Amino acid sequence: MTNRIFFWLITSCLLVSFGVPSWAQKNTNNCDELYQWVVFGDENNEKLLGVKLYQPELLISFYTQNNCQPVWSEEKGAFRKAEVMMAVLDKAEDVVNYHVPAIDERYTEIQTFFLPLGVFQYGDLDKLDVLLTDAALHYSFRLQAGEELDAKSKEELGNKVIRELQAAIKNDNLQDYYINAKAGTLAPPPATVPPPAAEPAIMETLREEKQQVVVDAGIFESVEVLNEQSRILGAPIFRSGDVGTFYNQRGYKAAWHDGKRTSSKGRELIKNLERAGEDGLESADYHLAIIKEQVQLAKNSGSAALNKLDIVMTDAALHYAYHLAYGKLNPKQFGHSWNVDEERVPLGGSLNEALENDKLTTFYNQVKPQHQQYKKLQRELVDYQKRIAKGTWEKVPEVKKLELGMVDDRVVALRKRLEYDRKLPKPLNDVRPNPADSTGMKMDSFFNAKVYDRGVRDAVIAFQKDHGLAADGVVGKNTIAALNVPLDGRVNQIKLNMERWRWLPNDLGTDYLLVNVPSFELNVYEDFDSLVLLKKVQVGKTKHKTPIFNDLMQYLEFNPYWTVPFSIATKEILPKLKRNAGYLTRNNMELLSGGRAINPYGINWANVSRKNFHYTIRQKPGAKNALGRVKFMFPNLYNVYLHDTPSKSLFARSERTFSHGCVRLEKPFELAEYLLKDEPKWSGEKVEKLIERGKNKRVYLTNPRPIYILYFTTWVGDDEKLRFYKDVYGRDEVEKKALLN
């Protein structure tokens, strides 16, 4: 075979436009558009939510048999079948391989935007439908495929999967189908399902239009057969589709060798992989041991061995880049709320450009998060890794209480622990207590390490502040627990929180607000990373967790009404109404029915239950209103917002999980004044008068600001001190386990 050949290549991307889906906006031949999409992919630099089709051939056959009609949605049944399939995919072990994040995003977009606007057409083929079908086919194929299948067996299995999936959709037994597929107990597909249709003639024409020059036939042949189960030189290929696209873009030219040996670019790649630990990742995840071994073996092994090594190195390079840019884990796989906007872009083109310009290290530095908080955590991680190399700290023995003035053997261990954490000043000075000291400290020798003196107390207070504890200088159960977290546990906590930053978009906005749930704080930033306001907040109880998401703060509402949520109205207020209907009047509330206020005394509350509670309870503006005097609105799916609260005393607590999910804000008018500083109509004086009148008023922001409600249990403050916070919603352990496995 010559080193210049022509081939037909079916790419992995689907052609869509930003915003309203093209298939839902015009009457076109769905089949023609689908075929064009599958074959030509992202030639216009457009992708289907950044994902890759896994089974393009099966997809074409499946939809051809179905006349390219949607299979997962119908006007009468809406998205019932789609929701069943989404539930099946959510239970898969590796949901990221089945488009789950993109499917969730698209489904939410349709439900919250396209359907209310009336621009979604059930009869047209939407990208949600195609993604679900590709995921369904791919999941079934992977469940039934053996370790190695020849071309004929793959074709036979593909045809079988199509017939089975069509039957499962038709008979409404998708869940049972996948349970049986996983268990290997599938019955033969019904004979009534039509056999695979012949490929349309248009496909041949489209393929002829898609031709590519190949520089190295050996690389082309190896890449052409890559799939999710592929292994080369014993290394599993994690990103087979991205590897194929990478080599396609460079005409199947080797990336990491010069025909005789590993090139300087290859050596630079190895150095970058060796530094993965600096970002909390593991070099072993990127074939490093195999690459190093094969670099030595391939020196005199010829181009075939070098080409195989080249592909393994490309997979490592891309896998590492994606982990740096977007994280190793999918935040939605844990069942926690995580609905933060993120735009994923393919990195193969950027990697090719970096290689052409000899800027590989620059490429990796640019794809990782650029947030200052990430960079600060990276600095702390390196410092902690150096410390762990010198040995960890010893545990402080359990004790009911240690406080100023006590003499206890365990104070010696406490001193050593605080010294390790750089809290206790060194060298130690004269700590003899003054006989007239009002604290009652006992006289002691020039220095006694068992004495809990002021130096120890001040060091304990500093430690408590840096760990989100009540800073009272008393060592109790919670402080002992924080002191005794192993050093490697703190290292892993930093790694996890760096991973969480990789789940976020790199651009949070020039000016934005960020609520960190575990620290119970609101941070307001200007100029990307300049902190201008820091406020205490209260967040949701563990039974009513504040969700993790982002949105756009659009307006403020002064003297707000509080419409009591149904759950609170029926679970908490209804029992009180059964005892005394005057509860509403005492709490400045009104009862509404059909939008009109009605007399609560006219209701026989004894006969009212959760099932027949057809009323709305609303609290009027006032000092006792649950939302206080102002709320900050960013309309969202969760109906969560920032607001004032009459429960001011709770801000003195170190742990502030008190709400039903919304975020309560200390000193809210300072934030209001800041947000309205560019609104000449709303000076502080005018706002004060508005509040005094008790008039309900909505004020829209000229410049709406992004707001992010996030979850970080490590944080470097503006004072450059690293802080650890309690994992109030119990997310850390399960996520750390997944990250480190």
Q: In terms of per-residue confidence, which ranges show pLDDT below 50 for 5 or more consecutive residues? A: 1-28, 42-49, 427-431
Strand order of the largest sheet: 3-4-5-14-12-11-6-15
SSE-based structural type: alpha+beta
Oligomer: single chain
The termini sit apart by 43 Å
- Identify the overall geometry: globular
Fraction in beta strands: 5-15%
Task: Give a quick account of the main beta sheet: strands, pairing sense, barrel closure.
Answer: 8 strands, mixed, barrel
Gyration radius from CA atoms, angstroms: 31 Å
Alpha plus pi helix count: 25
Offer a few descriptive terms.
741 residues; four-stranded antiparallel sheet; 25 helices; globular
Describe the structure.
The protein is of the alpha+beta class. Among the domains are: 22-207, no CATH class; 217-368, no CATH class; 410-485, no CATH class; 562-620, no CATH class. 40% of the residues lie in helices and 11% in strands. Strands 3-4-5-14-12-11-6-15 form an 8-stranded mixed beta barrel. A hairpin with a 2-residue loop joins strand 1 (231-232) and strand 2 (235-236). The longest helix has 24 residues, at 303-326. It is globular, with a radius of gyration of 31 Å. The two termini are 43 Å apart. Mean pLDDT is 86; it is low at 1-28, 42-49 and 427-431.
